[in-house]
Amino acid sequence: MRITLLLAITVTFGTTQNLPDRGAMPPGPVGGTPSGLTSRPVDTPATEVCVGDIAPDFSYQAADAHWRHLRDLVVDHPVLLVFGADEAALRSLESEREALMDQGVLPVAVAGSRLGATRAMAERQELRFSVGADPQGVIASQFNAIDPANGRRLPAWFVLDGERRVRGLGRTGLPKQGYAALASSALGLPPKSATVPSSR
């Protein structure tokens, strides 16, 4: 009887000895992932987004404070996605908005500023296309539009079709004009001035 009781006490002591101290454990749900791990940002893909690739999907908060998803935008229209645009480039993009929309292409810019600054800039410039805030560069890094040497955003553009496939891109800068021509060339659209021959 004494041996059985002593053995039971030893087994109980041995199992409690291996349990971690509850006070030393990180906060979080019991049996779940500690909260410190759930808030960690997801690593960006190491591969470069190229023509023919499916573009990474992302959600962003537009200047009107609504959340949008890239996958929802491309369902209705091909998208011209622009990174690293300064105010002059945004004005140029605004001046070509009608020409892009006539081709069925939706212009979207991703700004490196916070939402408040992005909204103020969009109002000041009277921009009539979607401008998303990306202050941490999360979206830009997914599209390899971040300079690895200094962490700055690179001026870059991408033309995406209805399946989110990259049909054209440029990472050497943004054009001063000619966004509509870039989009139509990448998507294989006929020039706007071209007439379709009538069938007989």
Order of helices and strands: HHEEHEHHEHEHEEH
Total number of strands = 7
CATH class reads Alpha Beta
SS content category: alpha/beta
Number of helices: 8
What proportion of the residues is helical, as a percent range?
Answer: 25-40%
The radius of gyration is 26 Å
What is the average of the pLDDT values? 77
- How far from one another are the termini? 106 Å
The poorly predicted ranges are 1-44, 194-200
The 3D shape can be described as globular
CATH architecture: 3-Layer(aba) Sandwich
Query: What characterizes the major β-sheet?
Result: 7 strands, mixed
Total domain count: 1
Strand order of the largest sheet: 2-1-5-4-3-6-7
CATH superfamily: Glutaredoxin
CATH topology assignment: Glutaredoxin
As a percent range, the share of strand residues is 15-25%
Entry summary:
By secondary structure, the protein is α/β, with parallel strands linked by helices. The protein has eight helices and seven strands; from the N terminus they run ααββαβααβαβαββα.
